[in-house]
Design goal:
The chain is an alpha+beta fold. The chain is built from 6 helices and 15 strands.
């Protein structure tokens, strides 16, 4: 699986495997070109699109929400599937979030091509304490986000020092109808910049709800990939957990089949 992912060179490649427990439809693993990851959003959306529309392994009738689940390195996660004007829509539960405030070293701001004045004081730097660990850094405006020019080698060194795998840089409310514009850098995984990152979006939705709470379920819209010429949109829904004060991010959208083929290994 790692060799295939390295050959394809996508941000992540998903591998659906047989279910490992009776309450799950399948088991999923994801690989970047360099390593396995504990959770991935967009490749999961694509995997369910293929299982429903191409392989016909999961039935999703019109006017009905099909609920299912999958297992992965992050545990068991739920999925909701339905059709909107005939097109499949997928909503995926993301792993539970947990954040820790982080004292931001000046070298990191420089490695991102930023200045201290670019930082947004409304939400301080936060480190995710789950999955591989990401650093979430809020900027004051869309222009600061566009100016961000990461130094891959410096970020990889700082990531190891801080115990984070990725750097999620975002700005709130960049334009009407958009709750956050996002850029994500994962140099340690062989991905300097990811065009769209569903796993980070789910965590970011939970972080925004915790820092700036509103009534739930809360629906958010994030954009990403503009600076790469590959603009994308992530739909996020934040729901309350059974435990008081806890929230969970769900990510959703549609997928499109663009290629069918066979790979000889």
């Amino acid at each position: 699986m790692q060799r295939i992912a390295a050959e394809l060179k996508h941000s992540e490649t998903a591998f659906p495997l047989p279910a490992r427990e009776p309450t799950a439809a399948l088991h999923l693993r994801w690989f970047t070109p360099a390593a396995e990851v504990a959770f991935c959003g967009h490749a999961t959306l694509a995997a369910f699109h293929v299982l429903v529309e191409e392989a016909r392994r999961i039935r999703v009738p019109e006017g009905h929400v099909t609920k299912t689940a999958f297992t992965c390195k992050s545990g068991k996660l739920n999925v909701e599937l339905w059709r909107d004007d005939g097109r499949l829509r997928v909503l995926i539960e993301t792993p539970a979030s947990k954040f820790e405030p982080l004292q931001l070293p000046g070298e990191l701001v420089t490695a991102l091509g930023l200045v201290t004045e670019s930082l947004d004081p409304k939400i301080g730097p936060q480190k995710s304490a789950i999955l591989e660990g990401n650093l979430y850094l809020a900027l004051r405006d869309r222009e600061a986000l566009a100016r961000c020019k990461p130094n891959a080698d410096a970020l990889e060194v700082l990531g190891k020092q801080l115990g984070v795998a990725g750097f999620v840089v975002y700005t709130l409310n960049p334009k009407p109808g958009v709750d956050a514009a996002v850029r994500c850098f994962f140099p340690g995984y062989g991905i300097l910049e990811d065009p769209v990152t569903g796993s980070a979006a789910g965590q970011l939705g939970a972080l925004i709800q915790s820092a700036l709470p509103e009534e739930m379920p809360r629906r958010l819209l994030f954009t990403q990939g503009d600076e790469m010429g590959r603009p994308g949109v992530v739909e996020v829904e934040v729901r309350p957990e059974h435990e008081p004060g806890k929230v969970r991010g769900w990510i959703g959208g549609r997928a499109v089949t663009v290629l069918r083929g066979e790979l000889d290994t």
